[in-house]
Amino acid sequence: MRRSSCAMGPTAQSACPWSTAAFRLEGLQVVLAKDGHHVILEKIEERNLVELVVNEEVVFHCNINDLEFGGDGDLDPLCAAARIAVLNAY
């Protein structure tokens, strides 16, 4: 199983900033898991930022608020772009 890290910052709109961020990442995690990746979530202090790290290199980043909330990620264009970035990193 391939390992990828997903660094996520708190969201500005929530009283529990990291719990809301985790829900926004569900689709991304599902999309990457379908390709056999094990995603490790890590907290960072940068607000609204998502970074995908493979082999200690940031291969994708976006604003967490641009990801679809929940779901399987299949229809989210950012999840598709993230998937391609991670696949290209290997």
TrEMBL record:
Alphabetized InterPro entries for the sequence: UPF0728
Highest rank taxon of the organism: Eukaryota
Pfam families in the record: UPF0728 (PF15092)
Family: Belongs to the UPF0728 family.
Name listed for the protein in its UniProt record: Chromosome 10 open reading frame 53
Annotated organism of origin: Equus asinus (Donkey)
